[in-house]
């Protein structure tokens, strides 16, 4: 047409616009539109539809205004797209004007226009007007019912949505998915799962699709129902949806939140590398962070960057949280600083809160307070809350009181802030201050959330409150718990009665500790499961320090693996160790040596005469390995750990009788000076957690993902002169 100098008429122009727009050529469509001399309603409908479908909603509204000014009347093809743009642009006034025009043109009873009007009012929060439109509709399409159901779900009016759903003469996949998603988002996990099960029945008219699966999986995560999550995973595999990367990403999130990190990683690895989008990477980073495995979060982040996926603000929230829970202060600060300098991402409130938490957990309360003073925005509850929570471990009442007063102003209805400060006063024996806080709580009408824990066994959740005696097996549970202190005391347990916040005798405090809800749940699990079953407990508040200690002893005495999910994170217990330790459980006096030669030979002559860590360092410093281009770095603990997780080859043990050559490896020597004096055996578990390895005294370990020689941990007397063992 261009070659022959022909110009399309309005009818042909409308077809050309539709063609260009459907193939992504919006600019070409606009060019064609601009060349039509005598536009018609059909032509305007085409360009309005093109702009709406491409997300240019304000442009759609402008084009419609021009159309109206030319005296062209809209029809049942015009108004649905204009109303959609008004809804997405939240242009309430224009939407109301368009509604008036549909009435003027007699189109309000048209099924498409009516549904678009209903959807418009739902999206702007006008449920009353949406109901009026719905009541006036003579023909109600399934989409009309779906739109109104979605509106009530959005407002949290579950009862009305449920009533509409049951009244529907015909339901489609959108109807079911809207109900499942709405229940999930409103915290009604059991109702969402029941609806999903109803869909799976033989007589059901519709079956779940990938969107339905993604809507129901968060319900499993919310209720910590690993059993049902695995059932849904099996269903996904049967119907062939396991190749869908969005479904696999949802499965990663579900498994991580249900406490099965291994299953989460397995699902992540099933996603093809070229299909791993930012959402998938962020989900895996956040999963490791929530389980306290900050080093793995760092590793996933770097793999993501190497894969060419650009991080966003959500990425750094997960990454900084992981660094905080793992005590990786230097890493965390480095990543925070790189947000602006490397990735041009402006830190948000949650990022500043993560840094405060990072510093405060490491005992750097003064530094955390100074950091808050430099934040270029008004610090919110999460920032002051992180500072207050860390004060208990450091027992810093001055900073705790300052942070608490800020929180009392920012969120006066949050009982947790009062309780945290009250706990500090109680531990310090300041019972008058405790009584004042309780009186203040009562005066302001603030109610404390009761602590509760639940455990899932054979697909059924069992809930326990503190001191609960309502369970049918209460007698057996309390018999087990009453016999427990004697068993674990023999193994070295000392009750931490500072977590009993009442001015009562020590004996009464010890008895009070037994009745904590998480202990009741664990006891029930011990009574009703076989030894190979992992005990998974969820608690609505933070796990107390004494329960944390007891879990370690139970895992050792009963030879069980225990996973406790509290309001902050997951805690893993196995063989008497906690595999998620806080910052202060990590040894600070670490000397590490990382050697990375292209080829390095450890001969018997080289090893001869080395009796101490210092001798090892000195010997390597003098060796010809440095002349072969290896990197010699005496660094802090975080770099030492970093070197450990980068290793991909397997390190064979050196026995003094053989020569071992590898093409590329790291020797990482961890030397903790005075660990027994400063931190005790807690730090051993932290190191084992960091490397995902079992840890015994003076052992040499190898694994497919890590290569590390661990020396030491023999006690305070020998801490500065530990023989190497090969």
Commentary on this structure:
With about 725 residues, this protein is an alpha+beta fold. Among the domains are: about 370-445, Serine Threonine Protein Phosphatase 5, Tetratricopeptide repeat; about 450-580, no CATH class; about 585-710, no CATH class. The chain is built from 35 helices and 13 strands. It has a six-stranded mixed beta sheet with strand order 2-1-3-4-5-6. A five-stranded mixed beta sheet has the order 9-7-11-13-12, with helices on both faces. It starts with 9 loop residues before the first helix and ends in a 16-residue tail after the last strand. Mean pLDDT is about 75; it is low at about 500-505 and about 580-725.
Distinctive features:
13 strands, alpha+beta, 35 helices, Serine Threonine Protein Phosphatase 5, Tetratricopeptide repeat, six-stranded mixed beta sheet, 726 residues, five-stranded mixed beta sheet, 57% helix
Largest sheet, strands/sense/barrel: 6 strands, mixed
Q: Stretches where pLDDT falls below 50 for ≥5 residues?
A: 502-506, 580-726
Nearest-integer average pLDDT: 76
What share of the residues does DSSP label as strand, in percent? 5-15%
**Separate helix tally:** 35
Radius of gyration: 32 Å
| Total E-strand runs | 13
Tell me the strand order in the biggest sheet. Answer: 2-1-3-4-5-6
Quick one: overall form?
Answer: elongated
User: Helix proportion of residues, in percent?
Assistant: 55-70%
The rounded distance between the terminal residues' Cα atoms is 84 Å
